[in-house]
């Protein structure tokens, strides 16, 4: 009887030691996608830039979406084509764009075709420059096994809802940055 207990004990210790072995470094379950919201106004004095300090690990990819309408998110970079307006230049186009490094995300407007300070109507300033909300989504660059979704297929990052579903993100837990 004592021999059976000894073998059971050795078997349990061996099983525990084997199950605790973490030599599979291809899957990193402690990197989880995150969402952060920032709201700001683009102005001439700020060089039409909204800047947010963040610590971004080198293993992450940054996606940025602009809130358009009630609950619709549009990925940037995005070109905005404005209609012709009397007294304003024609072919008015500007781009929402962003840059990031390990410490900062900078959302900006590039306006090579015209002057945002003088060539927008007051309605366009309200719609495209004032109180703009952006969602910064940090996702692990290696999508295999991340966030509980062991999927090998890629996700269409231009579709905000697909990103939320793929990474199992909870929109009620979005961190609002100031």
UniProtKB/TrEMBL annotation:
Keywords for this protein: Signal
Domain of life of the organism encoding this protein: Bacteria
Signal peptide span: 1-19
Full protein name: Uncharacterized protein
Species, as recorded: Chryseobacterium carnipullorum
């Amino acid at each position: 009887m004592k021999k059976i207990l000894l073998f059971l004990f050795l078997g349990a210790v061996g099983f525990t030691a084997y199950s605790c072995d973490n030599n599979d470094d291809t899957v990193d379950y402690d990197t989880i996608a995150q969402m952060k919201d920032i709201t700001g106004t683009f102005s001439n004095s700020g060089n039409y830039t909204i800047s947010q300090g963040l610590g971004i690990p080198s293993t992450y990819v940054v996606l940025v979406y602009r809130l358009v309408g009630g609950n619709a998110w549009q990925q940037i970079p995005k070109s905005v084509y404005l209609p012709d307006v009397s007294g304003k230049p024609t072919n008015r186009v500007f781009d929402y764009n962003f840059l990031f490094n390990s410490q900062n995300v900078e959302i900006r407007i590039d306006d090579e075709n015209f002057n945002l300070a003088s060539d927008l109507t007051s309605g366009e300033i309200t719609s495209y420059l004032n109180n703009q909300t952006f969602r910064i989504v940090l996702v692990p660059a290696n999508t295999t096994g991340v966030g509980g979704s062991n999927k090998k297929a890629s996700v269409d990052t231009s579709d905000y809802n697909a990103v939320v579903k793929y990474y199992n993100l909870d929109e009620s837990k979005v961190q609002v940055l100031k």
